[in-house]
């Protein structure tokens, strides 16, 4: 590490420390504040950034941990407790989001990458927003989290398929790759099931994996091994590393039910250091002056509005369920803040040359706008409509 890299990392780490404090005072989501910090930082260090590798490495590692945690945190055991009719209703919302998004891009003659922009749903920003609104334990909050979790899995599968097809097209090679990937994940799933069975039969031999006071943090090390196995194999299969990380967390989360402690430890490391660096690094890769151009601002607002309209139309089906009219009114806002995945689409699309910087900037600004405006509207509607925990 040279002197320039050391100073650059110091500034990034200082920014990562202060951004959550500033964002709380301004009522902003922390990732949005970190991206904005990166954008401003890029104005002064634009030439230096392209000469440093360590910041890109730390940012990519933060992205990988973010996606691993996204997979690990999905609670499939909650789905098992729900009535079949309710699960089908939630899945119907996601299917309608996809169909309406496709109809919109077909009607407006938009590039297919905008199908991802309009349809993706994520839990990353939604959970803290629900927590701040004191709705995480309510029926409404739990229902929204379940819909968003299903949507996030579908979104990441869609992102994987999109970039795979974008690279190989609709060809035999694509089908062969899909077969390889399906076979691989199926094999890993059953290996993890066998591993779980062995732990059940011989718990005393594997107690170190779940000890909370283990000074060597073996459980954390095991999760990093699991994560990088999937990251490496995803790279060998021609997939983006973050997709491997997500499915690595997802499969382990399906097998291991008692995962709260390890999530807490990984989150402390990830959100405390590497994940903020990823969001700052995203801001550094884009030009703030480019984002402030009128056509990019216009495109971002149009995309944000279309995203919300798609979810309003899809949520109409919830009228035939237990939800009240005012609940159906705010659910589209809760499902319209896929900040992390929008950033992923913008970053991956630009890095793989599927979109130019102007298009990537529009998608990134859409992530920022939807991450600022929709949570604010959601929280204000919750207050005005007098929602309470129930």
Automatic annotation (TrEMBL):
TM regions (residue ranges): 7-22, 28-45, 57-75, 87-105, 112-130, 142-166, 178-202, 227-254, 266-284, 296-321, 328-350, 362-382
What is the protein name for this chain? Transporter (CPA2 family)
The protein's matches in PANTHER family, at most eight in alphabetical order, are given as: NA(+)_H(+) ANTIPORTER YJBQ-RELATED, NAPA-TYPE SODIUM/HYDROGEN ANTIPORTER
Q: Which UniProt keywords apply?
A: Antiport, Ion transport, Membrane, Transmembrane, Transmembrane helix, Transport
Q: Which organism is it from?
A: Hydrogenothermus marinus
Compartment annotation: Membrane
Q: How does it sit in the membrane?
A: Multi-pass membrane protein
Molecular function (GO) terms for this protein are: antiporter activity
Task: Name a GO CC annotation attached to this entry.
Answer: membrane
Q: Report the residue ranges that make up the Cation/H+ exchanger transmembrane domain in this protein.
A: 14-382
Q: Which GO terms describe its biological process?
A: proton transmembrane transport
Specify the superkingdom. Answer: Bacteria
